[in-house]
Amino acid sequence: MTTDVWLPFEAHGIPGLPEASEAGLTYRFWDGGKEFPADPADCAFYVVPYLHGPAVAVRPLPEMSSVRVVQTLSAGVDQMDAGLKFLQPGVRLCNARGVHEASTAELALALVLASLRGFPKFFEGQRAQEWRTGFNPALADKSVLIVGYGAIGSAIEDRLAPFECARVARVARSARASERGPVHPLTELHPLLPEADVVILATPLTEDTRGLVGAGFLARMKDGALLVNVARGPVVDTKALIAELESGRITAALDVTDPEPLPAGHPLWQAPGVLITPHVGGPTSAFLPRAHRLLAAQLTKFAAGRPVDNVVRTIGG
Questions:
Q1: Summary mean pLDDT of the chain
Q2: Which of 5, 53, 119, 187 could pair with 45 as two cysteines, CB 3.0-4.6 Å apart?
Q3: Catalytic residue flag (residue 28)
Q4: In sequence order, what DSSP letters do the residues of the chain get, joined into one string?
C-alpha cells in the first residue's frame, strides 16, 4: 500500500501533523512546481496546491493510480472537474470546509458596506483631493438575501446580525431549517428576489448554479438593489450583468468574475456602479492556521484508518 502524502506546505511547519515514522507516512512537498517530488503513482493522499488554478491542480492526477483522498484547500471543488475522470472508484474528494468561512464572510460584509456607503466615490475623491460628501444608504433596515446557505453563507449571516437588517432570507439547494430561520430551496428563489435590497451569492459552482444569475434573475431584482458575488464568476452571466449595470438599475460588488482574471479592456472594469476585488475572499492571514488545522485533523484520521471529513464526492459512488 502506498503511503506518500503530497503537501503544498513543508510538513514540519504544520502543527499537529502525525509523525511520519509513527503514522507510516512519507510527506512530499509539492506546491505546483514543474517537477513532481516523487512518483505520483505512490501518492495516497494528495493536497491540491492553493491558488495555482485548475491546470496545476489536475496535472498529477492521470498518474495518481493509488491515491485514496484528494483534499482541496478551497471551499469549492469545481477546479478539479477536469481531473475526476482519472481517479479510481472509491477515491474521496474533500473540500476545505472550516478554512475560508471567516475570511470570505468578512469580505462579503466589507463589499456590502463599501458599496452601500459609497466608498469607491470617496476613494476617487481622495485621489482628486476633493471633499465629496453626500447621503448614502445604510445596511441597517435593509432586506438581505443569501443565495448559497452553506458554511460560508451561514458565516455571512453571523456577521450581518449586529447590523440591524430588516430581514435575512436564505436559499440553498434544498429546503431545511437553520438556527436562524428557514432555508428556502433554489426552486423558491425567484419570488424572493424582488424583496431583497442586497443579494449575496455564496453558492458553489455546479451544473445547477452555472449561469444562475442571468437576465431573468437580474430583472427580478428590485430597482436600486446590490448584487454581491463571493461565490464563483460563472454563477453570473457577465453580459447580462453589464447590461443591468449600464442601465443604472442595480449595482454590484464582485470578488469573482467571468472571465477570471478579468483582462484589461474588459467592459466590466468600466461598468457604472460596480466594485471589483481580485478574488481575495480566501487568501488572508486567517488561511494558514485554519488550513494547517484541517490537514492535521484529516491526516490523523487517514493514518488511523478512520473516515476523513468534508467528503463532497466519492468517485463511482
A1: 96
A2: 5
A3: no
A4: ---EEEESS-GGGSTTPPPHHHHT-EEEE-SS-SS-SS-GGGEEEEEPPTTSHHHHHHTTGGG-TT--EEE-SSS--GGGGGGGGGSPTTPEEE--TTTSHHHHHHHHHHHHHHHHTTHHHHHHHHHHT---------STT-EEEEE--SHHHHHHHHHHGGG--SEEEEEESS-EEETTEEEEEGGGHHHHGGG-SEEEE-----TTTTT-BSHHHHHHSPTT-EEEE-S-GGGB-HHHHHHHHHHTS-EEEESS-SSSSPPTT-HHHH-TTEEE--S-SS-STTHHHHHHHHHHHHHHHHHTTPPPS-EEEETT-
Q: Could you read off the pLDDT of 76-133 as tens digits, one per residue?
A: 999 999 999 999 999 999 999 999 999 999 999 999 999 999 999 999 999 999 999 9
Q: What gap in Å lies between CA 291 and CA 100, rounded to an integer?
A: 9
| Sign of the C-alpha dihedral computed for residues 125, 126, 131 and 134 taken in this order | positive
C-alpha cell at 143: 432586506
Residue 279 annotated in active site: yes
Catalytic residue among 260, 266, 293, 313: 260
- How many whole angstroms separate alpha carbon 201 and alpha carbon 225? 13
- Of 170, 232, 244, 290, the catalytic one is 232
